[in-house]
Amino acid sequence: MIDNRQVLKTRTIVIAAFSLVAFCLCGRVEAALSAANAPAANSLLSPPQTDGQLIPVAIAMRIINLSDIDEVTQRFRMVGYLVAEWKDDRLAFTPSAPWEKFRVYAADQVWCPHFDFVNGVAPHEAHDVTMRVFPDGTVRYSERSSAELSNVFNLRTFPFDRQTLEILIHQTAAEDRVVALSELHGEKSLSAEPRVYSELAQWQMTGADSSVEEIPGIGGEPITEVRFSVSMVRRYNFYIWKVFLPLLLMVVLSWTVLWVDPTELSAQTTISVTTILTVIAFAFAIQANLPKVPYLTFIDLFFLVCYLFVFLTAIEITAVHIAGRSGHIARARRLIRTFRLVLPISFAAIILLIIIYSFH
After folding, report:
1. Beta strands of 188-249 (E only): which ranges?
2. SS3 at position 66
3. In sequence order, what DSSP letters do the residues of 266-314 get, joined into one string?
4. In whole numbers, what is the pLDDT of the chain averaged over residues?
């Protein structure tokens, strides 16, 4: 009985050991077959050899939409086609037929540079990527780019301001010693579809420009950067009819107390206080449409002047009332006649000074 158990135990150990060896051998055979069947590394995914020279890559941008131009957050959104062109002699070919003008490759089949939107709030999104290779090895790359970009807005003359929206592009840090960017065909390489701007209620495009600059890279070495600039002018009609005109009417309304009899203190006070409260409420109502910047814009200065002259009307009421209570009715009437002339002239003069200060 003891011998049979010993024999059974020995058989079990032998079978387990044989199974383990077989499993290991099968794994090695499978790995060898996989390695034998694996495709060779694609050398076309590496940059072309240029004897230590940077690969010249020319780019151009065609903007098809600008939206969400937000001066409050100092950002804007852009959608456009980024086009790049370079030469890779490894891809040169002889056309097999007259109609074969170019060949199409996917982005994961051959090497292509990568572009970084420097002032992007987040990495840009690329769609509809196409690569066409012509017989001489010239590669034409195209992608539909969508990006949210930060921008510096100068709003001192708001809402009569002009802004420049900038799109800054250079190669990624991994390719700063591989690629040198330039403008496509050496021309101003920024263009736009004018029809898309008809829907921008507050903005009108007035021009576009592009340039190439050298900036210090991460390691301190100079790298190239292409700067695309779009000139925009604000349509200010909304602010004329919805802000400036109502404010002007409120100030003029506050001056109507100058034609009310000095003895009618209640009527004068009602007009003055109501006007002050209306201006304050109006300022809160349009606050969301005004830029939040650490300096005073033209519209801010206009608001302050309106506040001041509405408040001066209340001071005038008080002065006339004190003179009337003291029995100096003639003096009170002279004060009213003086304010009728001084207030409008002073208001116009201060507004003119603000215009000169803001637009000089």
Report:
1. 190-192, 203-216, 222-234
2. strand
3. HHHHHHHHHHHHHHHHHHHHTGGGS---SS--HHHHHHHHHHHHHHHHH
4. 83
Query: Are residue 283 and residue 177 in the same domain, yes or no?
Result: no
Distance CA 64, CA 77 (A): 11
- Domain membership of residue 76 as a residue range: 55-235
CA 104 to chain centre: 33
pTM of the model: 0.74
CATH number at residue 174: 2.70.170.10
For residue 246, give both structure tokens. 């109502």
- 217, 234, 338, 229: which is closest to 289 by C-alpha? 234
CATH number, domain with residue 286: 1.20.58.390
Residues 212 and 244 in one domain: no
Question: pLDDT digit string (tens) for 226-251?
Answer: 999 999 999 899 899 999 999 999 99
**102 and 66 share one domain:** yes
